[in-house]
Every structure is written in C-alpha cells, then in structure tokens.
C-alpha cells in the first residue's frame, strides 16, 4: 500500500495565531501621577527634624557605650555573635534601600 502526501484541507484552515494577553488588553490606560503640596513637604521636613531631635539622647548614649567597648578591645577579636549582628545590620541596610 502506498500513502501519498496529504494536501491542505482548504485555505481557511491554517494554523491559528494565538494572541497574548498583552495584545488582547492593549488599551491606552491613563497614567497615575501624584503631586505633593509644598505644605506637605514642609510638614515632612518638620517631622524628620523632630524625630532626629528626639533620638539624639539614645544616640549619644550608644556612642559612649561603643567608645568604651573600643577602648576595652571588645572588637579586636569579635565573637560570632558580634559578627552575626554586624552582618545582619549590613544586610538590612542594603536590602531596605
């Protein structure tokens, strides 16, 4: 038995082109924008300064404590706990920005 090549069924029966979601939903949606007033910017600056002013007491105490530890040589050969704490703080700093 010999099987010949099967020809096309008809011109309208070609492979369908499937549209992607991006092609189907391609409508020009309005873009959002935000405008921050001058008063809000001033208030943000005031709040930032207040926060800094309130936190200086804790900072000076912390600096004093760190200076004492440096003088005692605590950080000359740091323990795994100190290294872990420093690594966590560095990671938090870079991952939250």
Automatic annotation (TrEMBL):
It comes from the Bacteria. Keywords: Cell projection, Cilium, Flagellum. This is Flagellar biosynthesis anti-sigma factor FlgM.
């Amino acid at each position: 038995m010999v099987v010949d090549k099967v020809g096309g069924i008809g011109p309208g029966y070609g492979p369908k082109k499937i549209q992607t979601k991006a092609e189907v939903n391609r409508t020009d949606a309005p873009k959002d924008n935000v405008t921050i007033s001058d008063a809000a910017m001033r208030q943000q600056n005031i709040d930032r300064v207040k926060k800094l002013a309130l936190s200086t007491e804790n900072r000076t105490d912390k600096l004093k404590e760190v200076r004492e530890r440096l003088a005692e040589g605590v950080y000359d050969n740091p323990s795994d706990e100190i290294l872990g704490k420093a690594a966590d703080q560095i990671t938090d700093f870079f991952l939250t920005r």
